[in-house]
């Protein structure tokens, strides 16, 4: 699998008249080697790939692991005696034009590599990665299944007295107890916190009084699993106490926006037309605006795989086209911020988001996350 | 506190003849705003600071939180209608020379900002951050205390049948149950896995047979806590079963190397001499080499604060000088790789590392991590 990917990369080099490529992003290192343990805190490794060589460059902290696990690359262990410069000098005659990941490499690193090669150009593996293999889809599916189980598990834990943090912690424990990882810190937002699309899960506690008013309390849950390096991502919004009519309307509008986006994509696929990501975004966005609600303050969706956010981008300005084998989220949302007054014309501040992952198949989109989307009232 | 830091940054701008500075790294954004919830997965925010303006630039996912929590900055919410370009254009006449963080900004971003300003220069806040305030030291101390408690807790869990992953998970649960975070994924390495300085905690299980041989089984534990955004970092190596004489020698040599490094630093401080980080590294390194063991395959230590690894660097090539208020690790290690034969001349493959954090005080170094370093045999 990795050799096939490297072969495809070499084809790209040939086509774009590049002599070599420097891979610096952790996700692309994982994509080409299968090794996923470098940390993103600082630069711990590079790949340097040319027509007839492929090096993995790292330091003594990782070299033992790399020797065991990345046998299809030559290990260059950089240290005070064995400097990266010496490798670059030895490759000078073989590399005139080196491709780098401009969206990952820092300015400082660029200056360093520029000293050694005639020309640095830009390369991106986005398109290589956006279309998933059957094996990759199987892993994402498994991550989605674990996410569904985590959601089912967490519903039982929603009780008066529990905090957002405790719920997020319960999600994490459940996922890790299954031998998987979280793909991002779970978002748990109670009440008006749900009006912040990326609320930082905090210490708010679910109170008994929350549900005694005229409205239910919104609980927004956004969680993701990482299984064998592949990510899932799903959002559900449930109500603690009976929702008001306005809250119901918001919920149904968000759900309808998602449905319309999926139907539109399916009709395009069936008719054999190209599916523009921006068009899907527009369908969902307009459904929400047409009901008098504010537009979605984020993209409708994003590709997913080794990273939680990758290509394609489903947004108004996206130039991406959806293609067979792509996996992405469709996640419309309505967020009513607290305008300073206790209630805006939409009712209490709060937000609803519904997010699922889909894979683009021959017959249309298949939903990979399968938790119920029926409006759920707890208890 | 944040206003004081911004004031100091403005002094730096004046001194270095810079009209403005673009802050992109999450740790520096936290340092200047106190807000720590941006994710490192993609660029979610910038700070743009000049003589008489200070903007925080982010998107709709974060703007509600920023409005509440970062009141000392002007929020610029970028979206499809309100583009970053418009802000940059409005500042064009006020910024000729913009400083950027070249070790953080990507090549692509650099190209983008270069379009808007006459000149981009490099800036670094490393020196601002390396000397800690009393308040910062208090937070690091608290993180260290929690780390000590986690270590005490985990010792009770070391039993036949437990896996590396389970132990790491127990550490994480303990830390999070105290309301803190882990500052990095804990390293738990059994036996020869300890010969990999950055072993990726795996599924190896502690077997009853492990301790029945002529040697004890090494268990290396490297763990860190994040408390109110400040990190701790500590490593202890314990033995499951009675260690061989060679293992004891390795352990005592590592401990002695650490002691000598600390004593050397203290003698320099007492005599009022400048303390070069590279000299401290040398003392520990030479102690290990003098006993016939391989050199430390990593730096002797690193500064710590908002990030696990920051300045100063205690390494052979470091130009850093240790100064009053700096907090850093001293972590010598001896690692005997598995040369393919079951036993090398040092005995079974394995590694020992001992790591503590120290703060540079007026009278010398104070140790902040306080778990026992006496050679510990379990059970």
TrEMBL record, chains A, B:
UniProt domain Peptidase M24: residue ranges: 139-359
Keywords from the named record: Hydrolase, Metal-binding
GO molecular function: hydrolase activity; metal ion binding
Superkingdom of origin: Bacteria
Domain Creatinase N-terminal: start-end pairs: 5-124
Pfam families attached to this UniProt entry: Creatinase_N, Peptidase_M24
Annotated family: Belongs to the peptidase M24B family.
Name this polypeptide is given: Xaa-Pro dipeptidase
Source species: Candidatus Daviesbacteria bacterium RIFCSPHIGHO2_02_FULL_39_12
